[in-house]
Amino acid sequence: MECEYTQYSINPLFHHSNCERSELSSNMQIDVKLYGDLKKFAPGRQTNFALTLNSGATLGDVLTMLSIPMDRCVSLINGRRATIEAPVKASDILVLFPPVSGG
Q1: Predicted TM-score of the model (pTM)
Q2: CA 81 to CA 74: how far, in whole Å?
Q3: In this structure, are residues 66 and 6 in contact, taking their beta carbons and an 8 Å threshold?
Q4: What are the structural domain ranges in the chain?
Q5: Assigned CATH class of 16-97
Q6: 52 half-sphere exposure, CB direction, 13 A CA radius
Q7: In the chain, which ranges are E strands?
Q8: How many C-alpha atoms does 68 have within 13 Å on its Cβ side?
Q9: Residue 22 Rama label (left phi>0; alpha psi -120 to 50; beta)
Q10: Contact 70, 84 (CB under 8 A)
Q11: What is the mean pLDDT, run by run of 10 residues, along the chain of 103 residues?
């Protein structure tokens, strides 16, 4: 089965791929899942996707790359609440969803 790659030039530090991971020497790959109204920031309208980033990237870097306002989401890295300064590591799962309010 042939795999089709799609690259996005939102930022030269990463690209999106629908295919299996390929490790690059100074790069790493994370999985991203967007929920609620944050889905509109998904590359190619895919709410679950992989990002290849430079090593040392932070959650803030990912939000900037995806143009997601930092005050408009709750962020979980591997199921734990994360701050903007939190580093992301190879194979992390980043989940982003809008803040829940109401009562």
Answers
A1: 0.74
A2: 8
A3: no
A4: 16-97
A5: alpha beta
A6: 20
A7: 16-17, 27-34, 48-54, 74-77, 80-81, 93-97
A8: 30
A9: beta
A10: yes
A11: 35 42 66 95 90 94 94 95 96 95 70
